[in-house]
Amino acid sequence: MTTAAVQSPAAALDPYATTAPRSRAAFLYGLNPLAKVLAPVPIMVLLVFSRGIPIPLAFSLFSLLLLLVGARLRPRTLAILLLGLPLAVAVLGVSFGVWIDPSRLDAAAGSDTVLLAIGDWRFTVAAYLAGLATALRITSLLLLSLLAGATSTGPDLVRALVQNLRVPYRIGYTALAAYRFVPRFGHELEVIRAAHRVRGTDSGRGPINAVRRILGYAIPLLASAIRHAERVALAMDARAFGAHATRTERHLVPWRTRDTVFVVLFWAASAGLYVWALSAGLTALTPDRTDIGA
């Protein structure tokens, strides 16, 4: 008989938490973190300079499909991606559209269709589509970054940088120590809050009491951080950290053939999708950021 362990808030922030796949279908977990970082980079650069709605929308759907097929996402994450993200895009489209100069959209499609009018100000379909294009570019960049962010751990990425790109291990292991500070601070903050509740010093509402509570948390949290940093420094000295040019790696993150295949296939699929959209006249690289690419 097995029991499910309850994950604490501090453990939820632990970058050392394993992301082992539950099935072979979740192929993204078996790839080198560098492959998942390097593959989307050229496409992300093109998306920054792209114009119109179709190309960002196509790459948003493409990266979302990869996440749904290649990762084991939690129900809450699925709900955010499938329900919350489209709603956020729609809201951001309005937000960005409001800030666009209407005079730059006089010749754009939909500039005569007014959605909202307040005095002399008009919010048109063209303004909304221009804002929606910007929102979709941001969304596509976010989803592409999640290919690595949702299926890799920080320590594995650092190890891959040290082992595959020859980043000095002094920098890499320093980053590992910094990663470990995050869950440590979360745990210490929970302990401090519990101690304040036991003493009854966290009572009261309002902004003044909130500031007082934050100041009450800051001093012991700072003291705990200093103690933890001192212990980490002593542990590194005890292990001869920095005494030699290289170190023996306990956890290997090699670059395999499947990583090369993934990068090549990703670039090929992305290039094909981008070229198809350009040849179909869906959008283009233009100097005008308000071009909605009809």
Structure commentary:
There is one protein chain. Among the domains are: 30-152, no CATH class; 159-239, no CATH class. Helix content is 62%, strand content 3%. 25% of the residues are buried. A hairpin with a 2-residue loop joins strand 1 (114-118) and strand 2 (121-124). It contains 10 helices and 2 strands. By secondary structure, it is mostly helical.
Characteristics:
294 residues; mainly alpha; two-stranded antiparallel sheet; disordered C terminus; ABC/ECF_trnsptr_transmembrane; membrane
Percent in strands: under 5%
Radius of gyration: 25 Å
Helix content: 55-70%
Q: Biggest β-sheet, characterized?
A: 2 strands, antiparallel
Beta-strand segment tally: 2
SSE pattern: HHHHHEEHHHHH
Mean pLDDT level:
80
Side by side, the strands of the main sheet go 1-2
Structural class of the helices, strands and pairings?
Answer: mainly alpha
Number of helices: 10
End-to-end distance, in Å? 59 Å
Q: In terms of per-residue confidence, which ranges show pLDDT below 50 for 5 or more consecutive residues?
A: 1-16, 284-294
> Overall 3D geometry?
flat
Walk me through the topology.
Blueprint: H1 9-12, H2 33-38, H3 41-49, H4 54-70, H5 75-98, E1 114-118, E2 121-124, H6 125-149, H7 154-164, H8 169-199, H9 207-238, H10 257-279
Antiparallel strand pairs: 1-2
Helix pairs in contact: 4-6, 4-10, 5-6, 7-8, 8-9
